[in-house]
Amino acid sequence: MAERSFAKEVKKLKMGAGETFRGEGILAVTKALLENGVGYVGGYQGSPISHLMDVLADAQEILGELGVHFEASANEATATAMLAASVHYPIRGAVTFKSTVGTNVASDALANLASGGVTGGALIIVGEDYGEGSSIMQERTHAFAMKSQVWLLDPRPNLPSIVKAVGDGFELSEASNTPVMLQMRIRSCHVYGQFTASNNRPPSMTVSEALENPRRDLTRIVLPPATYLHEEEKLTRRWPAAERFILERGINERFGDPASRIGIILQGGMYNTLIRALNRLGLASIYGDTQIDMLCLNAVYPLVEGQILDFCEGKDAVLIVEEGQPNFIEQAIGHMLYKAGARVILQGKGMLPMGGEYNGQVLVDALGLFLETHAPELLPVAKQAVNEPATPIPDISAKLPSRPPGFCTGCPERPIFAATKLVQEELGPHHISSDIGCHLFSIMPPFDIGATTMGYGLGPASAAALRNKDPKGKRSISFVGDGGFWHNGLTSSIGNAVFNKNDGVIVIVDNFYSSATGGQDILSSRADNPTKTTQNPIIDAVKGMGVNWVRQIDRTYDVTLMRDTMKEALASDAEGPKVIIASSECMLNKQRREKPLLARAARDGKRVVKPRFGVDEDICTGDHACMRLSGCPSLSVKDTGDPLRDDPVASIDQSCVGCGNCGEVADAAVLCPSFWQAELVSNPTRGESRLARFAQRIITRLQARREASRIVFQ
Ligand SMILES: O=C(O)C(=O)Cc1c[nH]c2ccccc12
After folding, report:
1. Ligand 1 centre and the CA of 104: distance in Å?
2. Which parts of the sequence belong to the Thiamine pyrophosphate enzyme TPP-binding domain (predicted)?
3. What was the ipTM of the complex prediction?
């Protein structure tokens, strides 16, 4: 992480036995890895597990002392393949990524890893980005666990339970020779709490020791005939071993009164919200004391049949609280009960919504319905005798402005899309393929650019079929970020386009970081990184792949140049893909680095210049064309108070960072002469101060003269 320091978090990783660790769930996982003798850690950043990667990247000193190898993996497949170090060696390894997108990418390595099985504990920490705060398609990691037979832990969202799950996960993995996924939901990652730390433990075998004494075992390699035997071993040896471990270790927890006629089986991750819902219904204390019998599945795959049947024994009705669809757990439990001839009524989806996040209100409603149907006597009087409808909550969504995701103030990607818009204004609409990253905000107004997004690094790949048989006809335009480019785009998108003689225009949006995931360094980052090799130019990689037509633009804010280069690419006679590398630093990271430096320089009495832009109200016509081509959050509207002017004028607020985009856009579009640029000078020279005072005097005089002749409306 180039521009942010995690020194405070790193200090917490050093805590010893008995100290109280306070912090976020995902940081607790990071500490627990070190306490459990992990030998190596890898992963690919993404919300909500970026923090794990970022903190470890800054913790090289501790990792070095313990002999733990850490890598920022090229992508999730690389991360998962790294777990190969636990196949033959008794070394504990952990990797992390965002799920399900990362798991999709990882699934090749995941299936191979699961087939051969592991000797050392292999833990995959998946950040389950599901629910109202998610940025991705709504799917379940659970499906991957089932298809590859990888065990899935879903601990209750509190720090001691999360920390325990890390240790349990390693041991479960070793006891059953199977990789284990630790599912960390958004709210588990960000839950705040505390636990009592243990000492960090060096790995029982380091990766260096493994290299000095290499081992291989033919029966663990995924190649016939071993592959056929792996499946049998999964079913006859590894699965029963996992079930035994889950029971003996007491991974799943039982709460409430076991004699209760009704019961709830829930995913561990649902526990906090469920308790809150019971609490609101008057059926649980805020600390979780309740009479309702609950089986909390901290291991959601595999389910232990005996445990489930035992729980349901003698009950009238059982509710399954399982977030996400398909309802794998409910189906499995239904199947177990049917085979056993049980008569208990099974409730789940139907009473609960089929999909979407199970938030507090959803669970209050569903629990209310379940209890009303199967145990009305348990419901508090208020709920049983509802004789007044609840006060309706007014819908204010129509009145509030929506806040779609958009580019930051000063973002260097904005001018790229302003230029694209100008190109389309001239040459007509084109088919445009988008990728994943900040640049995907181009699909929102005011740009409205991009028709599909198929996955990370796959923007140009998703334009592959759109090949015009007329070489003079319209070509596709596609985008990929520098993050996606290095994740897999170099082969999947660029190599593919070269090999298949695609003639489309590919824009690589290079902002020097993997910005959307938190500003991590990548191969082409411009900064020095003490533990990574950076400064590998994208243009060299692209040329190495066989692209002949490449243009490097080093200041994306030059909208005229961007526009003209795109037009040239669309008209070029050159064969093969036309690649434009549009490079300017991510403004968020740039500000993180420069702001403190500038502030210190100004405090130290040094001369500091900050550019600012503004709009001349008297010239602005109020047509807001600048906003339609920019969308900068610092561009706003302002009422002049002049009754002869209908439209409010454009105005630039204090969040402006002086990137110059608005002026450039105005210039390229021949829009508007109303933008002005000023320089804010801290600690000016004596000459500058004198000049400013002189200019101010003249301006004041001119303004006074103009005011005198103005008609004033009272
Ligand atoms: O951090 C996010 O929100 C992302 O979507 C980035 C990301 C990380 N790994 C991926 C794999 C496939 C698609 C997106 C991502």
Report:
1. 10
2. 448-581
3. 0.95
